[in-house]
Amino acid sequence: MKIVIAPDSFKESLTALEVAHAIEAGFKQVFPDAKYVKIPMADGGEGTVQALVDATKGNIVRTSVKGPLHAQVDSFYGILGDGETAVIEMAAASGLHLIDESEKDAKLTCSYGTGQLINDALDKGIRKFVIGLGGSATNDGGAGMLTALGAVLTDSNGKQIPAGGIHLHRLNHIDQTNIHPQLSRATFLVACDVSNPLCGDYGASAVFGSQKGASKTDIAELDKNLLHFGQKLEAVSKKTIVNFSGSGAAGGMGASLLAICNAQLQSGIELVTSTLDLADKVKNADLVITGEGRIDGQSVFGKTPVGVAKVAKQHDCAVIAISGSVTDDYDVVFQHGIDAVFPIISEPCSLSEALAKGAINIKRTAFNIANTLKLNN
């Protein structure tokens, strides 16, 4: 019997690999001779670097970069087991969690640190990149990232403009003369689960600006500035940027990646399943087990369990999901390839207790699922 175990992390409790280990341990008590294939998963957001590194036996690179407000922060990215591909979570360098609530200011935050991570990987000979665009604190259109990569953004007097989206209206010229020489040889796949354009009512500033500390007045100005920046990007790249679906992701980071890095934007879970070649690994499987911390009505919109189920069903595999909890509307996932869902909490407890006992509860739940399946053998 071949069992593929492909869960996401249980946030604040276990990594995806730790979840997979716990599921395997529970099943092995009942089916010790089964073939287990563990594939840590993610959906392109937090945990993607760790999941892909674990799944491919790669390694984490730790370094210090400029955070969203220019202070040095400890950051990281992953190099996959092929030694050729870097995985970067934008949030690791330019994330909202890196600044205090009182410091949020979408006018001034900058994506420079994300560019530093790309630089570091390029200097190590990496030419393939997977970039996750979630949880950013920025609204600078990726201008900071471009600066870190060597581009010079100048005003009409030839002076470099200051960092932050509030200054983008001053941009007159994007000079790529000194951009990293290996950038043009690199390929970028970008995990992007929003379809927002760069500007307008559904653009980066209007939709996401307030959570990054922008007032209504700020949002109007930032939106106008991003339009100006986007038009400059279109001029140098000869591409449609401003209205391109996803160009508004991560405060407009999608725009710069499209224009200067020639990136391809993809659904996060589809990018991960493709990178890990999940379709090939579920061939001839008797069962696929997936899961995440919570399964609810939103799980059908690009979340890991449904993404895994979509691939599994292409090979007629049964799919069971294990979750920390479920909500009243969780059963919608049954319309999207998941055959059964099992929450792991067995008794009333606090959130901290549930997080602490994650591995124990997952192992016990997997053991009970396996025993149930054995009844039909």
UniProtKB/TrEMBL annotation:
- From what superkingdom does this record's organism come? Bacteria
Family per UniProt? Belongs to the glycerate kinase type-1 family.
Q: Does the keyword Transport apply?
A: no
| EC number assigned by the record | 2.7.1.31
Query: Sorted alphabetically, which keywords does the UniProt record give?
Result: Kinase, Transferase
Species for this entry: Thalassotalea nanhaiensis
Q: Which Pfam families match?
A: Gly_kinase (PF02595)
Q: Which GO terms describe its molecular function?
A: glycerate kinase activity
Protein name stated in the entry: Glycerate kinase
| UniProt KW Kinase keyword | yes
InterPro entries listed in its UniProt record: Glyc_kinase_flavodox-like_fold, Glycerate_kinase, Glycerate_kinase_RE-like, Glycerate_kinase_sf
Q: Which SUPFAM superfamilies match?
A: Glycerate kinase I (SSF110738)
